C-alpha cells in the first residue's frame, strides 16, 4: 500500500502535515505525536523581524470552531533558524516553513535568509495585510499574487507553496495567478474573516474586532474551494480547513488535494494528525486501494 505523495519534487511518506500556526514548530507536540510519522511539519509563520502580535484577548470559541487574531506573533527568522530548524532536523519528516510579511521586501528578506537552510519547502502566507496597498491582503488581488510569487521564485532555493485566502470572490482566479507567477504548489484555505461579540460585556470578543475563523464549520467551504482550484490549475494542492479525522481529509483528497494539513483539531486533540494518518491507511485497506493516487481528484 503506497501512501507517498510528491509535492514539486519533494516526496512525503504520507499526505498528512500540520497547518501553520496550530503546531508551533513541533516541539510542544512532540510528546504526543512522533514527528517521524508525519508527512511534513509546517511551522508557525516566520517574519524577517520579531512580531509581537495583536493585543489580547486574541482567541474566541465559536459554534463549530474558533476565531483567532494572534497577529502572527513570532520571534523572527534568525531565532527560528538557530532554534527551530535544528530541532526539526532530528526527525525524519519534511520541513515546510511558513513565511509572512507586511510588504514584498519583508517576504523576500525571509526567503533569502532561508535559501541556505536545510528546509524542504516554503509556504507563503499571502493573507498578510499589505502595507503598500492600504492593508488589503496580498492574496486578494490576482496581480499582487502573481507579482509577489514571481519575485519570490527569483530568489527561492526551495519549492514555493502559495497559501491562499478564502476571502475573495473567485478563488480559482487567485490560484491561476499564483501558478502564472511560478508557484510550485498552492495550499488552501486560510481562515475566513469572522467576528464574535460578547453580549454580556457588550464588546468584541477579540481585541482586534475581527479574526480568522477556523475549525469544522469552515470545511464545506474549504472542500468546495479545493475542488474549484483543482479544476483551474495543474500544480499540486494542499487542502485544509476543518479537518478533524480521516474522513474529512479524504474529502479534500477526493476533491483534488495531493496532501492535507490538520490545524484547529490539534488544539483539542493533540493526537489528531496521527489519527488521520492511520484512518487513511485503514480506509485504503477497507476499499482495497493500493495507491493513494487512485483517490487524488477521483471526484470529478
Summarize this structure briefly.
By secondary structure, the protein is an alpha/beta fold.
Averaging pLDDT over every residue, what do you get?
95
> Percent range for helical residues?
25-40%
Rg over alpha carbons:
18 Å
Number of domains: 1
Comma- or semicolon-separated keywords:
eight-stranded parallel β-sheet, single chain, 300 residues, TIM Barrel, alpha/beta, four-stranded antiparallel β-sheet
Protein architecture, described:
The chain is α/β, with parallel strands linked by helices and 300 residues long. It has a single domain, classed as Aldolase class I (TIM Barrel). The protein has eight helices and 18 strands. Strands 3-18-17-12-11-8-7-4 form an eight-stranded parallel sheet. The protein has a four-stranded antiparallel sheet with strand order 5-6-16-13, with no helix packed on it. The protein has a two-stranded antiparallel sheet with strand order 1-2.
Summarize the SSE layout with pairings.
Layout: E1 5-7, E2 10-12, E3 16-18, E4 40-42, E5 59-62, E6 65-68, H1 77-88, E7 94-99, H2 104-114, E8 121-125, E9 129-130, E10 136-137, H3 142-155, E11 160-163, H4 171-180, E12 185-188, E13 192-195, E14 197-198, E15 203-204, E16 210-214, H5 219-232, E17 237-240, H6 246-255, E18 259-262, H7 265-268, H8 272-286
Parallel strand pairs: 3-18, 4-7, 7-8, 8-11, 11-12, 12-17, 17-18
Antiparallel strand pairs: 1-2, 5-6, 6-16, 9-10, 13-16, 14-15
Amino acid at each position: 500500500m503506497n501512501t507517498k505523495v510528491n509535492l514539486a519534487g519533494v516526496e512525503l511518506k504520507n499526505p498528512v502535515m500540520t497547518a501553520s500556526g496550530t503546531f508551533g514548530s513541533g516541539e510542544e507536540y512532540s510528546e504526543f505525536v512522533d514527528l517521524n510519522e508525519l508527512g511534513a511539519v509546517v511551522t508557525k509563520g516566520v517574519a524577517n523581524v520579531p512580531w509581537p502580535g495583536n493585543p489580547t484577548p486574541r482567541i474566541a470559541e465559536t459554534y463549530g470552531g474558533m476565531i483567532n487574531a494572534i497577529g502572527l506573533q513570532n520571534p523572527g527568522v534568525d531565532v527560528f533558524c538557530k532554534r527551530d530548524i535544528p530541532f526539526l532536523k532530528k526527525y525524519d519528516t519534511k520541513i515546510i516553513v511558513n513565511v509572512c510579511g507586511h510588504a514584498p521586501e519583508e517576504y523576500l528578506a525571509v526567503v533569502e535568509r532561508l535559501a541556505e537552510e536545510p528546509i524542504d519547502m516554503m509556504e507563503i502566507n499571502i493573507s498578510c495585510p499589505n502595507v503598500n496597498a492600504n492593508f488589503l491582503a496580498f492574496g486578494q488581488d490576482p496581480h499582487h499574487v502573481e507579482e509577489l510569487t514571481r519575485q519570490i521564485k527569483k530568489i527561492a532555493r526551495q519549492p514555493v507553496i502559495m497559501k491562499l485566502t478564502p476571502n475573495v470572490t473567485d478563488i480559482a482566479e487567485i490560484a491561476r495567478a499564483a501558478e502564472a507567477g511560478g508557484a510550485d504548489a498552492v495550499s488552501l484555505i486560510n481562515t475566513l474573516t469572522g467576528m464574535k461579540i460578547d453580549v454580556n460585556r457588550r464588546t468584541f470578543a477579540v481585541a482586534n474586532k475581527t479574526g480568522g475563523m477556523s475549525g469544522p464549520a469552515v470545511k464545506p467551504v474549504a472542500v468546495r474551494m479545493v475542488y474549484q482550484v483543482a479544476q483551474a490549475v495543474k500544480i499540486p494542492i494542499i487542502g485544509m480547513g476543518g479537518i478533524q479525522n480521516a474522513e474529512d481529509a479524504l474529502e479534500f483528497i477526493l476533491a483534488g488535494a495531493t496532501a492535507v494539513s490538520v490545524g484547529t483539531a490539534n488544539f483539542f486533540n493533540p493526537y489528531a494528525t496521527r489519527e488521520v494518518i492511520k484512518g487513511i491507511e485503514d480506509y485504503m485497506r477497507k476499499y482495497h486501494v493500493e495507491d493513494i493516487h487512485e483517490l487524488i481528484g477521483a471526484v470529478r
